[in-house]
């Protein structure tokens, strides 16, 4: 059913812009020392992030005006082929950067194919589940298995980069969609336990992952190596108190927390602006997740409902992991805070996904009927 197109969800749109504005401001504050020392310009990261933010807004407006049903059937197959080719090129042909083959491109125009893979897996699984129907999804081999194979291909390529954190996010979002699509609870428990076992094996096989895990269990046992980032992050959050030291007055960003504008920017926010600001940011993410779930529930179309749930789940899982890592409730891992952390590729494709979510919001009404 085509339905009559209405306005976008303005609350969601405003919330996205608020988070984006906070992100640009805090990237500038957190990155000033590194920009000055390494690039001779304290505004270096601000300029780059602002350019990516403008591009992201353009992409979000573009995808918000493309009917979400465009990303189905043949189009999703083309999208999938394109994504796999990019990942294969990045993993096997591009030189490693900081020990990982996560980036594709040169100079300013570097992208992470794994960020595209997050969106693709949501669109693919939503399309597959809708075609198979809820009854077929209760069967492991006829329902779940094809989706698990595609998910496994992408997870395997991303681990090869290596990037275990992104592979875990994709696997988690995939399981959420499969469960919402009608999979049996016992199948989901089996998949969850299998995932835990595979994660343990992946940690044990790589010494640096094992060091991160033992550093999480007791950061102060190796406070200059495996526990260093966790301890410095806690120092930053603790020093901020209720209202913070003041915008721009962080001490931890002066090389105590490496690349403070990236994965640990939330710690800098806590130090400079205090608990009140961190609470507001968590509240903004909660609003985003609430509006996304609301759109998913009210969308009459099964495909649209699952896409909305999947995109919302990416934001929910990734932001939750970042909050837990920064507050030392999880081992240190390279997960950015969506819309806040520095990173053009992550920002661009996050905005693209949110544009699709905004488009879905145009086809729902108060009673959920097109």
Summed up:
This protein is mostly helical and 370 residues long. It has twelve helices and no strands.
Largest sheet descriptor: none
Which whole number gives the mean pLDDT? 88
- Strand residue content: under 5%
Termini separation comes to 8 Å
Low-confidence stretches: none
Number of helices: 12
The percent of residues in helical segments reads 55-70%
What best-fitting shape do the alpha-carbon axes yield?
globular
Number of domains: 1
How many strand elements?
0
Structural class: mainly alpha
**Secondary-structure element order, N to C:** HHHHHHHHHHHH
Cα gyration radius (Å): 21 Å
Organism: Caloramator proteoclasticus DSM 10124
Membrane topology: Multi-pass membrane protein
Transmembrane segments: 12-32, 44-64, 76-97, 103-128, 140-159, 165-182, 189-208, 273-293, 305-327, 339-360
Main location: membrane
């Amino acid at each position: 059913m085509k339905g009559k197109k209405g306005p976008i969800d303005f609350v969601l749109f405003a919330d996205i812009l608020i988070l984006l504005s906070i992100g640009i401001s805090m990237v500038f504050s957190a990155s000033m020392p590194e920009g000055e020392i390494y690039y001779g310009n304290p505004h270096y990261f601000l300029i780059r992030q602002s350019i990516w933010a403008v591009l992201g807004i353009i992409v979000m407006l573009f995808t918000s005006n493309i009917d979400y049903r465009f990303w189905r059937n043949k189009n999703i197959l083309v999208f999938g082929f394109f994504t796999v080719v990019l990942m294969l090129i990045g993993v096997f042909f591009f030189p490693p950067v900081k020990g990982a083959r996560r980036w594709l491109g040169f100079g300013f125009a570097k992208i992470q194919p794994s960020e595209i893979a997050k969106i693709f897996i949501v669109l693919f699984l939503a399309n597959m589940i809708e075609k198979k129907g809820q009854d077929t999804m209760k069967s492991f081999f006829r329902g779940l298995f094809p989706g698990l194979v595609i998910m496994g291909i992408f997870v395997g390529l991303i681990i090869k980069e290596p990037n275990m954190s992104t592979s875990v996010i994709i696997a988690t979002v995939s399981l959420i969609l499969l469960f919402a699509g009608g999979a049996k609870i016992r199948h989901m428990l089996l998949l969850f336990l299998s995932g835990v076992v595979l994660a343990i094996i992946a940690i044990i096989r790589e010494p640096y992952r094992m060091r991160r895990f033992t550093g999480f269990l007791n950061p102060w046992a190796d406070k200059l190596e495996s526990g260093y980032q966790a301890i410095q992050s806690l120092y930053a959050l603790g020093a901020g108190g209720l209202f913070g030291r003041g915008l721009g007055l962080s001490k931890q960003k002066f090389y105590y927390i490496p690349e403070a504008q990236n994965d640990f920017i939330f710690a800098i926010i806590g130090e400079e602006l205090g608990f009140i600001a961190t609470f507001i940011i968590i509240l903004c993410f909660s609003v985003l997740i609430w509006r996304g779930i609301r759109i998913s529930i009210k969308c009459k179309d099964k495909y649209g409902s699952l896409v909305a749930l999947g995109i919302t789940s990416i934001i929910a899982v990734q932001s939750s992991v970042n909050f837990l890592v920064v507050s030392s409730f999880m081992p240190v891992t390279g997960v950015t805070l969506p819309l806040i952390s520095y990173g053009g590729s992550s920002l661009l494709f996050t905005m693209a996904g949110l544009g699709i979510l905004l488009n879905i919001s145009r086809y729902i009404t108060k009673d959920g009927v097109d």
